[in-house]
Structure formats: C-alpha cells, structure tokens
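Weekly puzzle thread! Below is a chain. First person to post its structure in token form gets bragging rights.
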Amino acid sequence: MPQDTATPAPRDSHAPTRWQALKAFSDGQDNGLRAWLNVLDASIAALERTAWQGRASQAVHAWRLVESGASDLATEYQLLSAEAKRWPARLKRLSKTGWMLTRLTASYRLWGTRSAFLPAHRQAEALATLHRRNARRFAETSLEQGGAFLKIGQLLSTRPDLLPAPWVEELTALQDNARPEPAAQMRAVLEQEFGLPAEVLFREFDDTPLAAASIGQVHRAVLEDGREVAVKIQRPGLPDIIELDMTLMRLFVDSISHLLPPTDLPTILDEIERSVRSELDYRAEARAMRNVSQTLQHVAGVRVPATVDALCSQRVLTTTFVHGEKFTHVLDRHRAAGYDVAIADILSRLLDAWLHQILVGGCFHADPHPGNILLADDGDLVLLDFGSTAYLPEDFRQGYFRVLQASIVGDSTLIADTLLQLGFGTRSGRPDTLLAFADAMLAQLREAALQGDSHFSWPTPEQMLARARDLLAQAEADPVDKLPAEFIMLARVFGSLGGLFLHYQPPLDMAARLLPLLTREDILPVNKAAPTGFWRRLM
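Winning reply:
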C-alpha cells in the first residue's frame, strides 16, 4: 500500500483536497473516490466560470484545452493516474476508465459554453458530432476494459429512448466484439469450480472460444458419452471490479443527466446494476433456462438448449450444443430473395416466444438482440444466453396482460388505472404521458391485430419520427418520474423486438397470433378478467 509521504504534494490551491482524496482512495475507500470526483466537478465548474467571464476568447480556449487533454483538469487527473499505478490492480482500472469518463464529463459540461459561440444552424450538427466522438471513446474503452463497462455499454445500446442516436449506433458494435480471455485462465476457472482439469471433465475441449461476451465466453466441448455441449465460463476477477465500475457509471450519468430525456434515471441505473450483478451467478441462468423452456414447450418451432446440470456451477454453465446460424443472417438472405412468407414465419414465431414468456410464464429472456437468437439446422428458433433474465411478480404479469388487452380495444381508462397500480407515475400525477408511452409501444400491435395482414402497413420513417417528436414533447411537458423496476427490462425487450419488426416489416397476420392468447380465460383470475366487452369489441 503506498505511503502518503512517497510523493510530495504539489503546492497549489487544490493540493489539500486532492491529496486527502488520494490517500483515502488509495486505501480503497469509496468515500475517497467520491471526494476526488467532487474535486473533478469543482474543477470543471471553475473552468466554466472562467470561460463565461472571458466570453469568446477564454471560453473557446478552455474548450480546446479540455478537448486536447491539456487543461488544468487534465493535469489533475494525470497526477491521480500516476499515483494510481502504485495502487492495487483493482484501482488501476481508473487509469483508463476514469480518464475516459473525465473527458466525457468535461466535454458535456462545457458544451453549454461552446454552443453559445456557435451559429444556431450549426449547433445541432456540432452536438451530434460531440455525441458520436464521446460514444466512440466509451465503446473503445469498454471493449478494452471489459467487465461491467462492456455490459453497461451493451445494455445502453438497446435504449434509444434514453440515449441520443449516435450513442446507440456506436454502442451497438459492443454486442459481438468482446475480447476473449486466454484459454489457460478459462481452464483454471473450470478446475476451481469442479476440482478437475478440463481434460478429465470432457473428452474434448476446444480452447478457441465460439463467442466472447462481457461476462463470460463459450467453448465447444464433447462429453464422455459423446454429446456435444457448449460450455460458458465466467471471466475471472469480475466481482472485484463491478462495484467500482457501477460507482463511476452512476456519477457519470448524474453529471450529464441534464442532457438526457426526462425519466426515472435512478431506477434505470438500479436495474442495470441488478442485471449486471445477476449475470455473475450462472446457477440462476440455468434455472431461468429451465423455466422458459417449460413455458415454450407448446410454442411450435421455438426452443431453449437443455442444461447439463452436473457441469453447471456459479461460474460455469454447460448446455447442449445447437448447430445453426444467427437468425438475422437468414432473414437478410430471405429478404434479398424476396421470400416474405419465410420472413413472416420466423418473426411470427419470435413474437409468439416473447408473448408467452411475458404474458403466460412471467419469466422472460431480457436481451433479445440478434446474437442471442439462432436459427437451428432443423429450422427451430433457439434462444441463447439467459444471463439477462427478468421475473414478473404475478400481479405485474396480470397487469401487463390487462394493459395489452385494453390497448387492443382502446380502453384508455383501464390502461391508465392499471399503469398507476403497477407503480408508474408522472410529475403532475396525470396519466397523459403514460398513455402516450403505452400507445407508442403498442400502437403497431393494436393496428396489426385489428386490421389484419391484408390491410396493415408498417409506419414510414417520417411517421415514426413524427411519433417520436410528439412523445418527446409530452415527456418534457410532464415527465414520467416513477417507473417500476420490472418495466425497465420490458422496455428493453419491446425496443429490441420492435426494431427488428420495423426493419424487416413482415406481412404478419397479427390477429392470428394475438387474439387466441388475449382471449385465454385461464391466464387471468375471473375477478381480473379482460376489459368489459373485450371479446364483443373484437368481433
């Protein structure tokens, strides 16, 4: 552990605060981290004040200094980074992640200063450029550092409702680009978990991973009985860095919250942290796979790989191996060949799978990005990677079922009442913004169910943009400031699936998919049945 006498403190106005923070932080205390970040915040604020006092000359100069990494703020951080090299490995992570977030925070905090000196017609383009540059910095550091930051980046890439478009576009690259760990480290985890080396546990074990993700990576292996399996092994050392990563992320998001759409950011961050932490226990993932497999047993053409329970533990998950292809590759080939019916068949089964998970089982795969969905050689859709899984309490499952039913028949009163009961809330207490969000999420389902495949047409980009503008205006006028945690994962699922359907625009007979499910009387108790006249109003 470094001694605070090892490096004499520089003689400047920030020295006592900065070096007190260094000492506390080098002892591994969160208070030290917060103290240093408070120094950072004060430094940025001082730069802002100086910039505005000097207007054009000093403001532009301050902005350029921060962008080039040569400002007083950069000097402060370089001192911290130099000291951090002598800290334990867990804290050295700050040398890159902390500096990246520092630059992002500074650039956004000083955006107001810079924009004041730009012509109005250039401000939107300049802000978009800033977003893209910062998103690339975040993505590059996330790929290099892995751990929670990579997972957070993947989660944020599915939240176009929360982040500007350039961020979503740049972070999408994180979905399939995690760097693999050396094979020796993966073999060491196997031996730690089961007490035996890989060559004893398996007849064959391929050291080259099939896929690498933020939390773990997958290797092909063969059991002694000849069965081919996929072995997912957790990256070593993850629990030690999750706390630091999440602390940094919360402070960063708080510092730029004024640039994000008005919403319940604390709940969103809590749910992201819950999701990241939950993925550290593969036993929970194995349970989720078994639960979803049972829910989908009567859904034709969709399945989940079976778990090999004897080779599942907290850090290792072994399942049957499925030969197939990423399903979007197949969809792209069908579209190029004009096979619209084949596209509709695949996406219909995809919709069936998630409607049953959410509305019937109450346990659902919460990360349906294309890398997690395989089209098997036998034609089945196979759902992979259940690390991000959500469970709906029974009252929430029933509540969302009623909201969907009420949306189909246009019962706005029931929608509003149910959403309020589930824990949604607006700043004013009125339901208008809640109804606007419900309509935005469910409008396509309702129109497709009522019009049928021969009459329904997917919205144009212009129509989507107009809806987004209306929704944003409503959200700014009366923000949603209370969100149930369970909804964060639902919104992620709807966003991912909605993007797929809008991209491929299949000729679906939505009524044939939705109505049999929505009219099942066994899903809701009698006293919580469908909206009054539900079946009659559908005729």
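Puzzle host: Confirmed. Bonus trivia for everyone else. The radius of gyration is 26 Å.
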